[in-house]
Structures are given as C-alpha cells and as structure tokens.
Specification:
This protein is mostly helical. The protein has helices at residues 2-22, 27-37, 43-68, 73-93, 99-119, 153-170, 175-185, 190-215, 222-242, 248-267, and strands spanning 137-140, 146-149. The chain has one domain (2-267). A two-stranded antiparallel ribbon has the order 1-2. The protein is globular.
C-alpha cells in the first residue's frame, strides 16, 4: 500500500510538470502507466482516472498561465464549446472497446502524432512569419511580449470537435493533439498554444469526468484519484514556471519523443 502511494504521488507530480510544460495535460503519460499498474481495470475506469487527473492538472496550470497573461480566452471559449459534445460521447464510447484493442489503438495514435511532429515541418510555424489571411488580434502577456493571433476559425472548430472525442475516448486529455494543431495548422505562437490548450483541456476533461461519474466508472478508485490529483496540481505550478525557460521548439521535440516511446511500448507487447 505504501509503495503504491509513493508511486502514484511521484507519477502525479511528474505528469503535472511535463503535462503543463507542453500544454498536453499529461494523459498520454498517465494512461500507459495506469495500464501497467492496474492490468485488471477496464478501459473506461482507466480513462476516467486519467481524465480526472488531467482535469486537475489543467485547472492548476491554467491558473498559473492566466497570471502570465498567455491564455487567448476568446479562442479557448470557442474551441471548448466545439469540443464539448465529443468529450461526452468519447467517455461513453470507451466502454465499447476491449482492453487489448484499446491498448493497440492507443499505441497507434501515439506513433502517428509523434511522426507528424517530427516530419510536419522543419520549424515551428509562427503567425508573424506567414502571410496573414484571417483577422488579426494582438495578445500581450504580463511581461509585455506581443503575440500575433490569426487563424481559420472554421478549421479550429472542426479540429476541436474531433479532439474532444478522441481525448475522452483514450483518456489523454487532448493536449497532445491540440497543441501541435494550434501551432502548425492554426499558426498560434507555441507558448500561447500551450496555455490556451490547457484552458480548453480543463473544460474537455471536466465534461469527460462528469460522464464517467454518471456511469459509476470511478466509484472504486476514488483514493487513487485523490493522491494523483493532489500531486499533479503541485507539479503543474512548477511546469508553468519552467515554461518560461524552455524554448518552444524543444517543447514540441520533447512531446514527439515521449509519444513515440509510449506508442512503441504498446505495439510490441
């Protein structure tokens, strides 16, 4: 019991740091570790635990990013509304997938995203380096840095709808898809993308958790969730602090390496 407690505490803390640093929530780390720790649990319980922890991480990280002035609230509200239906449906759809199929599908998704990040472009796309085709807004953070926001709103809404479903289905929170989509496809500055993604993630994960609670998927794992959530909220504050010291391109590369390793792990077992 004590070993499980300290293992979950460490896991939650590390997920909080890395998940907030890259704006991904940490579900892509949480789910594979939970699959290993609890081989007898069904996918809906595992994804429910992950979404609950991701929700706490996203809320804590969003508070930290809000103080830094990096969240694009207008985009966060629009994309959260678009993601809401998929977040609820994904949580219910998880129960229809056998565990072995869930693990295989999870591995495939991780590898595909990792490959996209590696070969989707030689550099992070910045809106101020491209031809502007959409309405422009300027976001000024607390340090006085100006960030150009200009994107295709219809594409952003479509992406958020799909991300909402996949994130709840796999319990990964969606940040690992949303951050690269915001950066590469919509032209968000990477630090604004990670912060805004965290705010969207808080809403998506919350809706997914509510669906799991209504189904009764989390009744037997309340203590594990409490331990993980407490640790992840502490780690999230440190992750937000470290985001000031890590270059955007390194955030994307670290994300790709992590996803590739996780995906391969599930395809070879």
């Amino acid at each position: 019991m004590h070993s499980e407690f300290f293992l979950l505490l460490t896991l939650g803390f590390m997920v909080g740091i890395l998940g907030t640093l890259i704006g991904a929530g940490g579900g892509f780390i949480m789910v594979p570790v939970l699959l290993i720790l609890y081989p007898s649990l069904n996918p809906e319980t595992l994804t429910g635990i992950s979404l609950a922890v991701v929700c706490c991480n996203a809320i804590s990280g969003s508070v930290a990013y809000a103080f830094k002035g990096r969240i694009d609230y207008r985009s966060a509200i629009i994309f959260s509304l678009a993601a809401a239906p998929g977040s609820i449906l994904g949580a219910y759809a998880t129960s229809l997938i056998p565990r072995h199929s869930f693990e295989f599908g999870f591995g495939i998704v991780m590898i595909v995203i990792a490959i996209y990040l590696f070969f989707g472009g030689n550099a992070i796309k910045n809106t101020d380096q491209t031809k502007i085709k959409h309405p422009v807004r300027i976001l000024i953070d607390r340090k006085g840095h100006e960030h150009l926001i200009s994107y295709n709103a219809k594409l952003g809404i479509l992406l958020s709808t799909v991300v909402g479903f996949i994130s709840s289905l796999l319990g990964i929170g969606g940040g690992i898809i949303h951050v690269p989509a915001l950066v590469r496809l919509l032209g968000f500055p990477v630090h604004i993308a990670t912060a805004t993604s965290h705010a969207i993630l808080a809403v998506m994960a919350f809706l997914g958790v509510m669906a799991h609670l209504m189904r009764g998927d989390l009744n037997s794992v309340a203590s594990q969730i409490l331990i993980l959530a407490s640790a992840v909220m502490v780690g999230a504050q440190l992750g937000a602090h470290l985001s000031d010291k890590v270059h955007g391109s390194w955030i994307i590369r670290a994300l790709a390496i992590a996803l590739l390793s996780v995906g391969v792990r599930f395809l070879v077992t």
